[in-house]
Design a protein that fits this description.
CATH topology of the largest domain: Spore Coat Polysaccharide Biosynthesis Protein SpsA, Chain A
Structural class: alpha/beta
Radius of gyration: 20 Å
Shape: globular
Number of strands: 13
Number of domains: 2
Bound molecules: 1-O-phosphono-alpha-D-glucopyranose
Number of helices: 11
Distance between the termini: 58 Å
Strand content: 15-25%
Strand order of the largest sheet: 5-4-1-6-11-8-12-10-9
Largest sheet: 9 strands, mixed
């Protein structure tokens, strides 16, 4: 039986260059899907999975992220005075309990592995989660909860995986599969961003991980990999002799908010998943599609 997973690490230090100029002063993670910032979905998923400590690996200029999860006394008293109870609840619900939010700075963009390593002192020697907010998941059971439940049974490292088109393997960490059982795929190796003709499978890691702390010792070696960066996938690969690694084919649908088209898709999908918007959205989407087809 593995220790309870109570800490989640959110690597949010990136510059968000793909979303310039929107990200000139607003952190990429603060851009909303519908009415809440992308990073809020990640934090809500973690809370729903029982996470109690939220570690943001961040950089200068991204203070808005921590502020979003803190008290906002001026706004809260204004809303209270005006009896705007529902709005007040929306604001206070985003506040994390005292002591639950921790900030660590990543001063240089040395890669995802380095970002996770920055959280070592806070996480300590216990299993922990990593959530990449760019990957948004719509599912009945929160994706991270699915992983934590699987981790309680198999231990080691458990990451969310899905099959991607072969031509897309160079965008993901890819599993070299050993055995498969139900939703679990045990890996005997991992490769970061392999070319399609070199990829050992098409089973790709998406941005949800439950990791054994042994990975920190590997990350501490600061070995660089694809793109000259310290890769989390490589550190996990090197720890396979010590702990098992399972990919978990989660229930749900993933949206990649790291690209403009993916971001738009996420907005539409989350809008359609909201009962208060679906009926009004469907005819609008139908009309836009029909108009676009006519004019192309
Ligand atoms: C990162 C990881 C990669 C993983 C991906 C999931 O890549 O390095 O292994 O498959 O996230 O979104 P990035 O998207 O930061 O290039």
């Amino acid at each position: 039986m593995s220790a309870r997973v109570r800490t989640a690490v959110f690597p949010v230090a990136g510059l968000g260059t793909r979303f310039l100029p929107a990200t000139k002063v607003i952190p990429k993670e603060m851009i909303p899907v519908i009415d809440r910032p992308v990073v809020q979905y990640a934090v809500e998923e973690a809370r729903a999975a029982g996470i109690e400590r939220f570690v943001f690996v961040t950089a200068d200029g991204k203070e808005a992220i921590a502020n979003h999860f803190s008290h906002h006394p001026v706004l809260e008293s204004l809303l209270a005075e005006k009896n705007k109870t529902a709005e007040l609840k929306l604001v206070t619900d985003t506040t994390l309990p005292s002591g639950a939010l921790q900030i660590v700075k990543q001063h240089e963009p040395l890669g995802l592995g380095h970002a996770v390593w920055c959280a070592w002192k806070i996480v300590g020697d216990e299993p922990f989660a990593v959530i990449l907010p760019d990957d948004m998941v719509l599912s009945d059971t929160p994706c991270l909860k699915q992983l934590i439940d699987a981790h309680a049974k198999v231990g080691g490292h458990v990451v969310a995986v899905e099959n991607v088109p072969r031509e897309a393997t160079n965008r993901y960490g890819i599993l070299d599969i050993d055995t498969e059982q139900g939703r679990l795929s045990k890996a005997k190796g991992l490769v970061e961003k392999p070319a399609p003709d070199q990829a050992p499978s098409t089973l790709a890691i998406i941005g949800r991980y439950v990791l054994d702390p042994i990975v920190f010792k590997e990350l501490d070696k600061r070995t660089t990999g694809a793109g000259g960066e310290i890769q989390l996938t490589d550190a996990l690969n090197r720890s396979l002799a010590s702990v098992p690694f399972h990919g978990y084919r989660f229930e749900g649908k993933r949206y990649d908010c790291g690209s403009r088209v993916g971001f738009l898709e996420a907005n539409i999908a989350f809008g359609l998943a909201d009962a208060s918007m679906k009926a009004r959205l469907l005819p609008i989407i139908d009309r836009l599609v029909a108009d676009a087809r006519k004019s192309s």
